[in-house]
UniProtKB/TrEMBL annotation:
Lineage: superkingdom: Eukaryota
Domain VPS10 positions: 42-675
Organism per entry: Sugiyamaella lignohabitans
InterPro entries reported for this sequence: Sortilin_C, Sortilin_N, VPS10, VPS10-sortilin, WD40/YVTN_repeat-like_dom_sf
Keyword terms: Glycoprotein, Membrane, Repeat, Signal, Transmembrane
Subcellular location: Membrane
SUPFAM superfamilies xrefs: Oligoxyloglucan reducing end-specific cellobiohydrolase
Signal peptide extent: 1-18
Chief location: membrane
UniProt name for this protein: Vth2p
A single GO BP: Golgi to vacuole transport
Amino acid sequence: MRLLLWSALVSVITLCVAFDPKVTVTDFDQPLQGLIYFQDSSVVLYHSSDGSLKRSEDDGASWKDVKLEGAKRNGGIQHLIEHPFDNSIAYALSANSDTHFITTDQGSTWRSFKIQSINRFNPGRPLSFHKSNSRYVIVSGAECPNGNPYSAQCVDRVVYSTSNFENSDHGSRLGDKAFRCEWGHTNKDSDDSIPQDAILCLLEVDNSRRLALSTDFFRSYETIKIDGKDVDNVLDFGTMSKFFVAAVGPETDISLLTSVDLTKWSEGSFPDDGKSTINHVSAFTILESSKHSLHINVAHDGSSKLGEGTLYTSNSKGNYFKKSLDHTSRSNDGLVDTESVEGIDGIVISNVKENEHNVRTKISYDDGRTWSYLSVGDCKDLGGSNPNRCNVNLHAVLDHKNIGRIFSSPAPGILAGIGNTGRKLEDRSKGDFYLSQDSGLTWKRVYRGPHFYEFADQGNIVLAIKDTEEGKKDGTDEVVYSLDRGNTWEKFKLKEKFIPHFLLTTPDATSSKFLLLATRSKNKKPVSIAIDFDGLYKDKCVMKDDGSGDFEKWYARYDPDTKEPTCILGHKQFFWRKKIDSRCYVGDLYHEQFASTEDCPCAEVDYECDERFVLSPEGQCVPNRDYLKELKQCKTGETYERSTGYALIPGNTCKKDGGKTLDGKKSVVCGSEENGDNGDDNGDKADGKIKSHRNLFNGEIVNYFYLPLDKDSVDDETIIAQNSYDEAFITHDQGLNWDKLLDGKEIASITSNPNFPNDVYVLTFDSQLHISTDRGHSFNNVKLPANVAPQYGGSIDFHPKNREWLIYMGETGCDNPFSCKLGAYYSTNGGKSWDKLVEDVTRCSWVGQLLHKTDEKLIFCNHIVSEGFTARKALVSSEDYFKTKTTHFDSVVGYAFQSEFIVVATVSIDGI
């Protein structure tokens, strides 16, 4: 009887104790270099830093060595590469050998192969794959004298195979001129009209880099042309989704060419400057894009050095771009703090730099059209009603520590990240674990401290382990998990402390198993830790279409104000997601859930400008210049029929019944539309009458000027005005339409560079210099070395020949107004860095273009000389940035430049 009672008591206690998953720890000899978790399988390949391979068939619970004859002896495997379109194929490329290996059964067996002419692989992208034929592969690398991969005389080579290097096939060279190639079907969304054997290559032709297309493996080819002319100086090209993008030099003024079918190419149009060229680009990055819009991040002249870029999104053809987001955070090597949410159309998360030190996180639900800060759902404990305390900022691509995506997974609508609330992103070691259950609409702090995190069983299980390496601690033995999407947590203990490095699960997040790669705290030995939640629940979740089962209908995006489901691309997306309080497992192994859709009535956002139409400043689709010239070949008073200017975005599923119909045809009276190409003249027909337009400004206009015209700006009539409220305004059409310049900034002064007519410099009272090289269409900002001096409004002087040589007058030490120091600083790189020139001066100028030749570094200054309670100004000069100086006049009023002379006003006993 006692035994029965004791057994019953144990059963009751067991129901109250948290579930302990099965944990298996395996020691490795070497740390991780690379890893493949094959899609829709439990097979994992582990690539060690010594070049050896291990394989697991049970999600990392047990491992076996992979025997590759001769690989270890010759330096081991250098690259382990998974085939993106066939989850049974992987390649192991050797480091110092001409023998390489391929598996077609997820690593169960391997065969060796050789590649002719390749002794060193392209480190960025050694292999290119074909979406429809897994036996097609392109290898990019170099051929080296005597097979020595370290030789300085290596020559670029590209080799292809149509048999996966089977049966003594060592591949065939794609000519001697190619040095980078991709299949025309290298992405899953590539256009089906592209020939199956199409290959795109960069070639050296006639001492120029050109892009060429071949459909017969370069036995013949056609170079890419625009308007019938070969495109020279192609810097590089890339692919994303269905788009092909090429960058054309010179490197300081890059143009983008785009295509979706590899036969028709066009220059990308960027309406911010009215040209196809993005002025003074130092770098650009192709970002993850949707099927219907290309996303690129552009670093303008020097902005990459500041860690900034600009995000642009295109129309469905990839040839017309709109600015989406300024000041996006990016690294010098092109990484951008931007990620699209997996499985849901149009949600993008990006970090932006508000200034040199402040990074904040924004989210877009409409593919980059509009952005907002991330919101904490309930922020009473984080600062009450202060809205800045109710925003969360998250670490993204630039300091990502795990493998795979950062914020999202295949778990429907569940996003996570490490960050903090407030007005700026703090150091990652100070971050906490935040989670969103509604695709990023609202966020909640679910655990303190930075963590590695992962989702399993379609979001049914959230696992997290503290990032102890970030905190410089000696590891952790505690793992936490949540079964209700982060609302409550359970924990279990490992048998010893570990320092975690990577946490992952099956690529589709459908299993209940996790794999943690870590090192032992006590001896720093690498280990894998398999964590298995099988048996967590006894019952499998039941799906019922009426919602009465364990799943509920959940929409992927909601309006932040109305909380109602919203549309994108003409439809609402929804999932059947497990109810948060259902105690069951989803268990649909290797079958992740994809979104279902409900069509919406068509709205204006479902349309884009039709072929040969562009967006005017008023937001209307109008004929471009070339098309308008054709349309004007008519007799006055007659009518002609043309497109309305609008077309439904490809892939858009909206219903015109009950919605807007903007596409189709329209009849136009000849002569009624005289203008096109972005509506430069507002579409007004010339009628011989003087037109006026009234614009009201706050306060008084205290400063205004025209920008001089040059050969590149003959159609631009730019005026800049500043009012007494420290605001500035700009117009590009002689004052018809005005835009506020640097909205939210207090303007200290504005000036243009007299030697380079398109350059505008704006100083703001937060000690920033905002520089435009495209007549005020866009600005990059740099930090000034000293505060703006109110009495001078900030002063910038320009070198007559060297565009990036600047002198700035500012003040320091003004915490005490009696200790202010006025000084001059100089920059020779456009303000990216500054050096002290000289103190106690009221004006400094570069000197040049005089009658007699001078040193290009010659600078004149008015130097303040204190004598007791009086002071005088001396005119001094230097040719070595005032390491030495020459005094020309002891007492001056000032100096000025007149033609090829310097005019100096001096003080004598008799006066001036």
